[in-house]
Structure formats: C-alpha cells, structure tokens
Specification:
Oligomer: single chain
Structural class: alpha/beta
Largest sheet: 7 strands, mixed
CATH superfamily: Flavodoxin domain
Bound molecules: flavin mononucleotide
Mean pLDDT: 96
Helix content: 25-40%
Number of strands: 7
Distance between the termini: 6 Å
CATH class: Alpha Beta
Strand content: 15-25%
Length: 159
C-alpha cells in the first residue's frame, strides 16, 4: 500500500480506535488533531461550546500543529460529525493544512445522519484530491466484526 498518513480528530474515542485499527491494517503513521482546550465528554455540554464557537466565528486553537505530509503518498482523514458537519477542531485544522495535491480518503462517524458533511469537507480542504466519504454510523461502530470488515473493504479500494 502507498505510504499513508492517517490524520484524525476524536473527542470520545471512537475515531481514535478507528484510526488505530486502520494503522494496524496498513502500517500507516498517525497524526491526532488536538485542541488546546479539550471538549467536555458530555455531548450536549460539548455542543454548547462548539455552537457558540461557530456563532462567534472562533474555531479552537490547536496544540497539535501540522504534520509534514511530504513523505506520504496518500492521506486518510477522519473525525466525528458535529452539528451535521465537520467537528470544530477538524475545521480549524483545515483552515491551514495543505495536502499538496495528494489523494485524501475521508471518513466520518455519526449517530443518525451526516447531512452535507462531504460537501463541506470538499469546500474546506485545500489542495487535496478528496475521494468518496466513508460513512460510519453507530450501528457499524458498535459491531466490531462489521466495522473491521468495512475498514478492510475500504482500504482494499485504495492503492
Ligand atoms: C459537539 C458534538 C456535536 C455532535 N453532533 C452530532 C450530529 O449533528 N449528528 C450526529 O449524528 N452525531 C453528532 N454527535 C455525535 C458524534 O458524532 C459521535 O459521538 C462521534 O462520532 C464520536 O466520535 P469520537 O468518539 O471520535 O469523538 C455530536 C457529538 C458532539 C460531541
């Protein structure tokens, strides 16, 4: 498989587990996006903050910086859906990240629906070839054999 970097954000651990499973299957490197201030693990408390940030146009500062993507041939990019679109730390990351024209394979985790996630991602991501979005609802996340198979099938479609 092409040399791969996995970039992800995870607040409550689902995307962290997915990123690590993907890394184990591909021998890829991991880069975790981390805000300076972590969000509350209670979804509604986190949403109060995230919604206010959006209303005020203040995306969170990040302490994780930006990875050097030059040595990679492709990027996997994942995170949770927040308020039907990209989580605030991922939005913040994308304001400055440059994907150097490389293929970017995105995934998203969510409960019910993700609305216009793919469209928003394409609008916010600079200089990358965004591929089809892998949608991972909770029904898949909470079923480890199914998740495992879904991730394997997804990776098989890549180089
Ligand atoms: C601030 C916030 C907003 C959320 N908004 C949505 C939403 O609009 N739709 C949805 O299906 N899930 C929503 N969720 C649930 C998350 O998508 C779900 O918990 C997440 O995919 C888990 O990823 P993580 O454990 O890697 O953080 C929200 C969660 C948080 C914390």
């Amino acid at each position: 498989m092409a040399k791969t970097l996995i970039i992800y954000y995870s607040s409550t651990g689902y995307n962290d587990r997915i990123a690590k499973q993907l890394a184990a299957k591909t021998d890829a490197d991991l880069f975790r996006i981390e805000p300076v201030e972590e969000y509350d693990h209670d979804m509604w408390a986190a949403w109060d903050i995230a919604k206010k940030e959006r209303e005020e146009g203040q995306l969170p500062a990040l302490k994780s910086g930006y990875p050097d993507t030059s040595q990679y041939q492709q990027i996997l990019l994942g995170g949770p859906s927040w308020g039907y679109t990209l989580a605030n730390p991922l939005q913040s990351f994308l304001t400055k990240a440059d994907f150097a024209g490389k293929p970017v394979y995105p995934w998203v985790t969510f409960y019910d629906h993700d609305e216009k996630y793919a469209e928003d991602l394409r609008a916010q991501l600079h200089n990358g070839q965004v591929q089809d979005l892998l949608e991972l609802p909770m029904s898949v996340l909470d079923n480890q054999p199914r998740l495992d198979q879904t991730l394997t099938d997804w990776l098989t479609q890549m180089n």
